[in-house]
Every structure is written in structure tokens, then in C-alpha cells.
Target: Peroxisomal bifunctional enzyme
Amino acid sequence: MSIHTHTHIYKLASKLHVQSGYTVIFFKYLICKNTIYTFIVPFLISMLILCQPHLLLVSVEIFLQALEDGLKRADADPSVKAVMICGENGKFSAGADIKGFSSPKRRGIALGPIVSLIERSEKPVVAAIEGVALGGGLEVALGCHYRIAHVKARMGLPEVTIGLLPGAEGTQRLPRLVGVPAALDMITTGKVLCLVIPPKGVKICSLPDVDALFCNSIFLPPGQPLGPRRLSLKPVPKLPNMEAFLSEALVKVKKQAHGCLAPELCFQAVKAATEQPFADGVRREQELFNVLLTSGQAQALQYAFFAERAVQKWTTPSGASWKSASPQPIHKAAVIGLGTMGRGIVTSLVKAKIPVVALEQDLEYLNMGRKAVMFLLEREAMKMEQGAQTLDFHNPARLQFTVDFDVLRDVDLVIEAVFENMALKKEIFHKLSRICKPGAFLCTNTSALNINEIASATSRPQQVIGTHFFSPAHVMKLLEIIYGHHTSPTTIATAMQLAKVLKKVGVVVGNCFGFAGNRMMFPYAQQAVFLLEEGSRPEAVDQVIEDFGFRIGPFRMSDLAGLDVGWRSRKGQGLTGPSLPPGTPARQRHGHRYSPLPDLLCENGRFGQKTGKGWYQYEKAGGRTAKPDPWLHSFLSQYRDTHRIKTRFIDQEEILERCLFSLINEGFDILAEGIASGPEHLDVIYINGYGWPKHRGGPMFYASTVGLSRILAKLQKYSEAHPDVPGLQPSAFLKKLVAMGNPPLKEWMSYLSRPNNKL
Ligand SMILES: C/C=C(\C)C(=O)SCCNC(=O)CCNC(=O)[C@H](O)C(C)(C)COP(=O)(O)OP(=O)(O)OC[C@H]1O[C@@H](n2cnc3c(N)ncnc32)[C@H](O)[C@@H]1OP(=O)(O)O
Model:
């Protein structure tokens, strides 16, 4: 804490832009006291996290105490005319140290009273915001009498995303500043606002103007009372239809929450601001905050926050890692195949402003693909409003369509996205290897196929890598990145960098059939179908899974993705279709239980939404509203009769456990084999690619909360009842962890001997 000179203020001020008025955002114009005065509380640490490359974490106690002492000194010192709170190194504050929430010691620390102290100050306090002002950081700014922000500053109350609410009186001050609709939107979604394109009414000053603000007391005439600047004293702006507005908002919040508590409790806290005086609202905020803090969901969401960052620091069993590998720049990319996946990938690249060549096998497919890509891009551009023109996708230098492989000579990276056929993929990779420049990286968008085999068709296997996108590829955040035997660390680093540029979460995994995500999905989907054989219905299974918090249950998902996709893959594996050896029992493959139900549906032309019929019926082909289908129910009965399957009532617990525990069980095998380097990887994959509810932390985190012993016991019980289902037989690694006394998730990997790549 120190008092800074006028010169210092100038230095800071020269980096700031001033906005006046409020339109979308809540910043009022800066008013600052006259010339020589200001006192800077050094970066709001600790709270205060200086973002990368290092963290500057100072204990909350030290920070809060320093802030309190500083404010008191400033109040007592007649030479100080105003106080400016700012951050160091271009960052205001990223809010509280999230790691600290799990510490019981931390729970007693309250930022709210300090924010009140700031607000009560007799001298004008200005928050000078650069970089980020998030969570507690923004709440501090709300306690100030004025806020001034750099035009590129990012501001928000993201507590809801870590399972909390803005518990330092933010739920009470923000609605008083910006009104209930804007406050509710920010607080219940956690969205972070950026003023790169300033809203109407926001004034951007030139640098001399900014200096003038500080030098001349143009905004704050001496002696102007601070009362009207204290948010806690202001009423919440009224709405003519507040009650109706709030009921509608609650419905929306609940619908989007999928069982996550925080958004609804955030809503309740803001509602309290509309109904109660400030002090009572603050008490309500505290009550709700404590509910969330101890809910378990906050821990899961905070785990997910760190897991997403941990997976960026990838390593492979051979010792390659993010530390030593440098990504290569991608100035131009190509996408081969403009089916559903290829279209989404092209769109993603264009959005990331990477020039793209899109290639199809012939003009007919090319034109269909072009139309579809243009449609997607138009839609994306509309969403982007002012930023749309920067996509410039009608410019052939940005996006070129071709059927000519020669055009790929100068690209830095190719993503092949043709359908899942090994022979076809190998043919394409062989061609690419001959045509592309030596440094070009060759990526395959496959959901299961062997990366080594694909790489073997090239003369540069070190530059071949799997990039498994999720549909729709321009929307889904996950990019599963699969290295083969020969993939170089530079290639992995480049794929990870690509994920970042595409605003996706890249997760590096090893090579095996289905990689990590789909491999875990197989036993889950298999259990879902077995449950139908034994007496359940698609809508019952989906309901249980959706009640758990998944966006969509396995049957609705299968209808959406198309049943034909899996059918083609099973035919390729010889599990069904013409290559199935005659005499193979209908419900058995390789000595294990198999359900032909999905194959039978396909044989009946039921491919899901695209044909208007699948596990459900739809209003028309391409329809999206799933309705239980009496045809399917009677088909299931006949099927059970034909195969003499005794049906029984299956309760929700069994549905949930068999689906989820078999998926988790596979996860333990994947960890044991070194396909994923930690449970966080599987959790990040499931949250970002498979709709696993984030407030349950991902499947492996969930397993740790259920208790490994319980999961093991249940798997043992189910595998005894179904000895021909390998997916239910407990993983040796799970058994080992239970035998070791159920260690915490972060220690699991230390119980493994050195992992190796499976293929
Ligand atoms: C009550 C509740 C109160 C009072 C709160 O304030 S709750 C906290 C509210 N704040 C947040 O939720 C902000 C979370 N952080 C972010 O959104 C982003 O990290 C960022 C926008 C601040 C920076 O993004 P970026 O530049 O991409 O960098 P990273 O996300 O990779 O972060 C860099 C490292 O900093 C660690 N970090 C970031 N914020 C926090 C935090 N609030 N507490 C603890 N640690 C934080 C992050 O984990 C990265 O660490 P490493 O991976 O490098 O170890």
C-alpha cells in the first residue's frame, strides 16, 4: 500500500479510456477529484489474481486488512482528496481465489463489509478498471463512487459458474446501478461483458481528454456530496411489471439450470433486492450464499474450473509435454469432406479467422457443402452483430471451395473429415502426404479409428494426429486430440493451440478404439439398450438421465445423431450385416451379450430424427419433438417374446447406476492404460463433449463423491446378475483404489504403475 504521485496517476490514466452514461453496461461517467491527490491501493490482490503467466496470490486476510487500513488512512489524511483503486500490470481483479473456498478457514472472511467501508468513505473513491474486474473484484468496484474502465476491460460476476453467488453485496448493488433485467442477466448467467465496441452513449476519450479528466476537476466539483453515488442508498429502479417479469425470468433460469442450484439462488438474491431494504437484502444474500457454499455443487464446479485449466498442461506417457513443445503457426488450413462435421469445422475455422480451403470429392457435393457452410456462416455472422463483417467469408482469400487437391499445396494444416471408413481415410492421407508441403500437419476427424493405421499411409506419421470434433463442430467446445505412436510433441502442441484459437477445450488422449470419450460411451449406451430388452422404455431411461442433469438422454441423443452412424460402424466391425458369420446367435457376439435392437430399428428405416422415426416418433422427417411411440413399445414386446426375455420393472436407481457406473468403470480402465493422463481429462471431455452436468463435476469426480466402494459394490452386484456383460465387470484399477482405502481423486494416478499407449 503506498501513496503514489501525480506522475504515477498519469501513467495509469494514459492507459484508460473513459465512458460516460449507461446504456448496456453499468458504468457511470468518471468523476475524479482535482489535481494532486490520489492514492492507489496496489493491485487488489488475492482476491487478486494477476492472470498469466504468474499468479499473484496474497492471502485474503492481508489484502482485506491492507484495503481497510489504506481507506482509513486516506480518510484521515487531509492531503488526500480522492482515492483510486486500481490493479497492477493491467489487471484489476479476477476476484477471490477460488481454491480458497474449499478451505474452512476462508469461510469466515467477508469482503462485503470492506465494500461497505469503501462506499462509506468520505472521499470519492474511484475504481480504475483495466483487464478484468470479475467477481469480488467487480463487487469492490460497485462499492466505489465512480468506475472508470479501459475500453477493453472485461467485467462480470461469474460466481454462478463456480456454484456461488456474488456474496459481497453484489446481488444488492448491481440491480440498483443497472436495473433488475440487466443485473439478473449478469448474475444468473455469469456472462462477462466487454466494451470493445462501445454501446451507444458510451464516450471514449482520447488520451489528452483522459489526462484532462485527471488534471481538471471537470467531473467532480469540490464538495459535491457523495450520497447519491452510494449505491446502497439508491432504490432499485422500478419496472411497471416487476412481478410478471420476475416470474418469467425464474422460469427461464430454471429451464437453463438443468438441476444446478446456483442460478436459481442468484435469482432469489436479486429478487430480495427488489423486495427488501438493502441491509435485509444483504442478509438474504448471505443465507443463500451459505447454502451454495455447502451444497456440493460449488465444489464440483470449482473442480471443473481447475480441471479445464489442468488439461491444458498436457503430457504423454513417453514424457512429451506442453512445457517443452512449441506449437507451429497455422496461417492457412484445409478441410476435406463437407458433410455435417466438415461444415461445422470450416465454420469454426472461419470464425477464428483462419483462411480455409474446403475440399469435396466432386462438384455436386462441393456445391451442397458450400451452401450449407454459407448458411451456417450467415447465421453465425448474424449472432455476431457488429463483428460480422470481420469474418469476410465471401472473400476467396478467406474461404475457398475446391475439388482440386493441388490447392492444398500451401496449407499449414489439413483436417480430414470424411466418413468413418479406414480405407478411404488412408487413401486421402496417402494423397495428402504427397501433395502437402513438408511442414504441414495432417489431422483426422475420427471418433474411433486407429490413428496409427491412418498415419501409416503417409510418409510423415510424426505430423499426423487425431482431432475429434463434436457435433455441431462450430458449437461444441470439446476437441479430443489423439496422438499416435509417432506423433511429435510439436504436432500435439499445434493441435492444442488450434483448439485454443477455435475457442475450444483441447484434451490430449492416447490412441485406442473410441479414444476416451466414445470408449466410455459404449458401455453406457449398451446398458441403455439392455435396459430396454429387460423391460424399460426409451422415455423412462432418458428421463432418469436427464433428471440427473444431462442435456439429453441416450435415446434422444441417438435419434439426434442418427442411428445409421452406429449401424455403419457396427457393420464395419462385423457385428451386424453381411459380414456377420452365419449362425451367430442374435444376442451374442464374441461370447458376450449383444443387443441387435438398434440394428433392427435401422433395418426398419428408423434412423432417428432425420427419418421422423427412431427410438421415438417425430412430427415429420427432420422433426425435433420426440414423442413416445406405441409402435416401438409393441415392437419391444414382440422382441422380448421372440427372445423369451423375462421382463421386470426396472427402477430409476438401477437405470442410473447401470448406465453411469459402467461408463465410469470404463474410465478407470482408460486411466489404468494411460490413455488419459488423469481423471480431470475424462471429466473435461464429458462436460464439454457429452453434456455431462457440470455441477456434478464430470464422471470421475462424481465417482469420487459417490464413493468408490459403493460403485465397486454396485458393479459387483450388476455383473453377477449379467456375467456376460464385460462393461459391468469392475475395473482392476477401481478395485485397487478401493483396496487402498478410497484415496482422494487427486491421488488416484499415483497408484498406477507407468502407463503405456494401448495400440
Ligand atoms: C464470493 C465469491 C467471490 C468474491 C469471487 O470473486 S469468486 C471468483 C470469481 N472470479 C472468477 O470466477 C474468475 C475466474 N477466472 C477466469 O475467469 C479466468 O481465469 C480469467 C478471465 C481471470 C483469466 O483467463 P485466462 O487469461 O484465460 O487465464 P486462465 O483462465 O488460464 O487463468 C490463469 C491462471 O489463473 C488461475 N486463476 C484464474 N482465476 C482464478 C481465481 N479466481 N482463483 C484462483 N485461480 C485463478 C487459473 O487457474 C490459471 O492457473 P494455472 O492453470 O496457470 O495454474
